[in-house]
Amino acid sequence: MSKPDNRPFCLNADYSTTRRVTDTMPTVENPLEAKFPKMLFLPAHPGRKGEGGLRPQGHFKTSDWGQADGLPLITVITAVFNAAPTIEKCIRSVITQSYDNLEYLIIDGGSTDGTLEIIRQYEEAIDYWVSEPDEGIYDAWNKGVRLATGDWLAFLGADDSYLPGAIDAYAAAIVDCRDRLLEYISSRVNLTTGTIVKRTVGLPWIWKSFRKHPNVAHTGSLHNRTLFQRYGLYDTSYKICGDYEFLLRPRSGLRAAYLDAITVNMGLGGASDNNLLAFRETVRAKVTTGGRSALLSHMEGILAMVKWKLRKWLWY
User: Fold this and answer.
1) Residues near 51 by Cβ (< 8 Å), separated by ≥ 6?
2) What is the mean pLDDT of residues 99-114?
3) How far is CA 295 from CA 287, 292, 299, 301, 308, in A?
4) pTM confidence score
5) Above pLDDT 90, what percent of the chain?
6) Could you tell me which CATH class the domain 16-268 is placed in?
7) 46 CB-side CA count, 13 A
8) Any idea where the domains of the chain sit in the sequence?
């Protein structure tokens, strides 16, 4: 089914991830000044339970974003561990998107509850999946960043799902702002319990407010890969707020845009719902990376904790 000139071709029109593939393996370049190595496959791991997807079958993705009429290649990364009840909905929300130039990576931490069996059912629509022990969500995300070939990267939790048309909306925003050299795009996200929407979160990224409180919806965000090339990978010493710490690194210089649309249903009860640890890590990130006063950061942390408890009492 491949084209002799190695242009992208449709492998399977049913999935967003298989409508534009190539059988030419991309060249991976790792200059000495690179902050981390890029790769198409993770190195062997003694605890690996499996790997698969389109890449091991010789199918890859390529970007034509540099061309005048090109569209950005968007990579979605899902980190998962023992999420059998929700992972299928997550996967399907990605592979049934209407946007064609999409890459999907799943990094599993060695699940034992049937998650791998579900992933294998969809590996013909997943670019690359791997299952092996890791050191938490940010270690898994770092693996995904090393593996990604997209121009833009998104992180979708195993308990979360994209709404129809979400990736098209992101891509349209990127194209509309082509001349601004954007590095980050955020949107709005529904916080859900089952099928019930508890509330909607996600504000525009503005440095003055962001350095006080992580008020953007990370699971509803896209990151230009140049951000990682400039600032490195996530700090794995964080267990919940590593994404906040990462976005503090550019400080006021981050070139950000806001997509005023709801793109994701985010399931409540994941790692980020451990709010005591989250508040502690937020304070740490604001002081060590954001350069904010320790006294102000602790006061803001206490106020945020009070607000969270009130909101939990009112909404949950």
Assistant:
1) 41, 42, 128, 129, 130, 131
2) 97
3) 9, 9, 6, 10, 20
4) 0.93
5) 78
6) alpha beta
7) 0
8) 16-268
